[in-house]
Amino acid sequence: MRKILFESLTKTPLTEPAPGEADAEISALAIQLDHAARARLGRSLSIREVDAGSCNGCELEIHALSNAFYDLERFGLRFVASPRHADVLLVTGPVTRNMSEALLRTYQAIPAPKWVVAVGACAYDGGLFAGGYACLGGVAAVVPVDLYIPGCPPTPTALLKGLLALMANGRARVPL
Amino acid sequence: MPTLSDIITTGRVIEAHRPYPRVVVSASLWQTLISRLSHGESTLLGLWGDADAVHMALLDEREGGVIVATALTGEGPIPSVSRVHPPALRLERTLRDLFGIELAELPDTRPWLDHGRWGLRNPLARYAEAAGEPTSYPFLGAEGEGLHQIPVGPVHAGIIEPGHFRFTANGETVVRLEERLGYTHKGVESLMAGASIEQAARLAGRTSGDSTVAYAFAFARAVEAALGIDVPLRALWLRALMAELERLANHFGDIGAICNDAAFALLHAHTSVLRERVLRAAAACFGHRLMMDCITPGGVAGDLTPEGAGQIRELADIAGKAFPALVELYDNTASLQDRTVGTGILNPTLARQYGCGGCVGRASGRNFDVRRNLAYAPYDSLRFEVPVRGEGDVNARVWIRIQEVQQSLALIEQILDAMPTDGTLRASVGATGKPAEGLALVEGFRGDILAWVRLGADGCVDRCHLRDPSWFQWPLLEAAIEGNIVADFPLCNKSFNCSYSGHDL
Hints:
The complex is a heterodimer.
Chain A: H1 2-10, H2 21-41, E1 45-51, H3 57-64, E2 77-79, E3 88-92, H4 97-109, E4 115-119, H5 121-125, E5 147-149, H6 156-169
Parallel strand pairs in A: 1-2, 1-3, 3-4, 4-5
Helix pairs in contact in A: 2-6
Chain B: H1 4-7, E1 12-14, E2 17-18, E3 22-24, H2 27-38, E4 43-50, E5 53-60, E6 65-72, E7 78-79, H3 89-99, E8 103-104, E9 120-121, E10 129-130, E11 147-152, E12 164-170, E13 173-180, H4 188-192, H5 197-204, H6 212-227, H7 233-261, H8 265-286, E14 295-296, E15 299-300, H9 306-332, H10 334-340, H11 348-353, H12 358-362, H13 370-373, H14 394-418, E16 436-443, E17 448-455, E18 461-467, H15 474-481, H16 489-496, H17 501-504
Parallel strand pairs in B: 2-16, 3-6, 7-8
Antiparallel strand pairs in B: 1-3, 4-5, 5-6, 9-10, 11-12, 12-13, 14-15, 16-17, 17-18
Helix pairs in contact in B: 5-6, 6-7, 7-8, 7-14, 7-16, 8-9, 9-14, 15-16
């Protein structure tokens, strides 16, 4: 273990700075996100993710945000276990009828101000699963959505971009 | 001992079913097949409903034969399989939910996927009924002094799929775990009915996103079997390349995630990097990080360029160099071994009884891998080993994954070396003017995926059933956790890594 740790000290970080189009895109995002995040919530924004019946593809890419290449936490964005600690509800899936109550209750457990981000084609309008007996067809059918991030599934870069857009334009919903 | 094909000598053979036989059997023969299952003489591969029938796919592991037996509902109640063979229980509860087929002496009549929220009952039956309000779900009991219950889910602490776990514990020790699934039920089978083959293939590829290649592969092979299509050689090899990349990405992710659940984040950080490298190579070569919709019935969607092949070789080289140090780290970290060794032991007898596939089965002595046991192209001409261990604990499941990573890296090189260079990538898939049925099994990273399809005369899907390996793994997690402490559940759960979406359909 010592060897791996020492190597990590001497190697350059994998976290992506410049070259290549996609990479440049990420670092530009990093700077903007940093400003926007600080303006709204000091230095951090906590995200609670809920799978409302996705195929698990979106979850895989959301997970990837935490790997060394994207390193989400450097932007002050982090995933939390409890909705009580969250500012943002990140929802995937076409919202199955069997998950709708759990989704609503999670939303209600998040203190205001809060934002809802719907991730992926299913979360937008049910995607391929729209029209069946088992799905409500999109997150907006259950909770108010502030932002959609398209893709099947969205790439980690697209997810980062989306979170930035939220920071720049988000108007937190205050409960009535 | 007579083989399956010796036994099924009577009954009406359905000619349109390929490549394995499907036979409509009498009630007495159905009973004989059930009793063979209960004596471990054959393995249950799948059990699914139809408008007026129940189909049961059986494997004879010795002769390597597969047979689909069909019992018709018009001839009195069909005897329950799970009455004597518990692995069928959740499948039978499901076909009762979806089709309303009543089975004689079904030991558990609680609904499974139906949570009473669909607004209708028996959605796949000829005539679905309107449903009333949802009722509460009675969990199984556990009696004794000092027992308490811990409900967990459907929304879990991490970024994972939804499902409910009901623990009954005595202090720290789990006395009983009962799962309740079905939260991600999207009605895939209902959406497939009447869909075009292309649309159904896209749905199949989204049954479980982490296994999108394996599902698309299985569905494509079932359709090709039904229609008698010969897939171009290069496409077959590209499919295997994608399947091994998918296995690699998932195993890297799982090895790290298991260690992370034992609070050893360092390994997780390093394997996540390897996983990301695989996904980036996949995106560069096939245009999608998870390779969704890259396998289509008839062939594959796109070709691999020589530059792409170079990128994959480079990936295999980087991973091959970085991985041994991580394996050594896993093996030499006492605090980590303390958590994984001897934890969550799955008894090999149960693994065999349940026909449990994948790493979970192979870590508990079940020497089964579809790529070898029911070999399909191009695996029939590739060299690889199927690692098997007997301890059945979390550590064994990690080690099976480690060894499978090594096998997949070697397979990727073999595939790149031997792949034919001819350019055709896709055979045409058209209606044959008569109904056709096909069945295929494909080894995904989680185990054997079964795809069964019946195509109508117009070439559209009439009925399709996809059986995830998790059906025979989820129930065993309940057994493996017994007597362990509650805090080890995430570790055990991750080492199984069953699919919610693939199971819930």
